[in-house]
Structures are given as structure tokens and as C-alpha cells.
Design a protein that fits this description.
Blueprint (H helix, E strand, L loop, with lengths): L1 E4 L3 E6 L2 E6 L7 H15 L4 E6 L8 H10 L4 E7 L3 H14 L5 E4 L2 H16 L1
Parallel strand pairs: 3-4, 4-5, 5-6
Antiparallel strand pairs: 1-2, 2-3
Helix pairs in contact: 1-2
Protein name: DUF7793 domain-containing protein
Pfam family, one: DUF7793
Length: 128
């Protein structure tokens, strides 16, 4: 298993899926989002990944962070499943994504298993 972490997040790859989980509660700022993206690029080794991104420990995500992530955060990804805390957050995020038209398949889930099923479907489709 390949692993990489920094002071606030841990990444690991199992069976072709990139996973991440915050080690503690995080209030995003521009420095943190840059470090997160930099660490994800490093573990990806500049190769596209299917990413299961658990953000249950993430709190604030200011506009400057969203803007930076929108520009730099989708590099080296085939698809991203975001795992969040609430059905309301999931609904709002998925509605926003439909309006925004993400560069990659991107969807929010409240259940890890459903997030993984969705990523595995996309991975299987892309590999066939």
C-alpha cells in the first residue's frame, strides 16, 4: 500500500483507488488547500487517480480556497467521490456541481460504500 501524509491529512492507495482522510478538524485557508493539493499530486505521481475524499473533519472552506481548488484541484484525477457529513450538504454540493459542470465526474456522498461503488463503476467503465 502506498501512503503519504502531512500534518493534517493522510493519503493512501489501495487497488487503484486513492483515499484520503483528515487527521483532525481542519479550517481551510489558502496555505492548507495548497498543501493538500501538493500532497495529492505527490502521491499520484502525476498520474490520474480515482479519489475517495473524506472531508467529514473539514469545517470552513472559504471562497479563495474554492477558487484555488477549482483551478488546481482537479489535475491528475479521473473522478472524485466526496464523503461528507450530512444529506443537506450532499444535496447542496451535488446541485452546485450540476450547475458548475466539473471537469471530471465529481459527486458527494454521505456513505463511504456508495462513494466507492460509484468510483468503481466509473473505473470499470473507463477500463473497458
Amino acid at each position: 500500500m502506498t501512503e503519504l501524509e502531512n500534518e493534517f491529512i493522510r493519503f493512501w492507495i489501495v487497488d487503484g483507488i486513492l483515499y484520503s482522510k483528515f487527521k483532525r478538524e481542519v479550517n481551510f485557508d489558502l496555505d492548507i488547500i495548497k498543501k493538500l493539493i501538493e500532497t495529492r499530486h505527490a502521491i499520484s505521481n502525476n498520474v490520474n487517480q480515482y479519489w475517495c475524499y473524506d472531508v467529514k473533519e473539514a469545517n470552513e472552506f472559504p471562497k479563495e480556497c474554492r477558487d484555488y481548488a477549482d483551478i488546481h484541484g482537479q489535475d491528475f484525477l479521473f473522478a472524485c467521490a466526496l464523503v461528507i457529513n450530512s444529506h443537506i450538504q450532499k444535496f447542496l454540493f451535488n446541485t452546485f456541481l450540476k450547475l458548475k459542470k466539473s471537469k471530471i465526474p465529481f459527486q458527494a456522498f454521505t456513505d463511504n460504500e456508495k462513494a466507492m461503488e460509484w468510483l468503481m463503476e466509473i473505473k470499470a467503465k473507463n477500463e473497458s
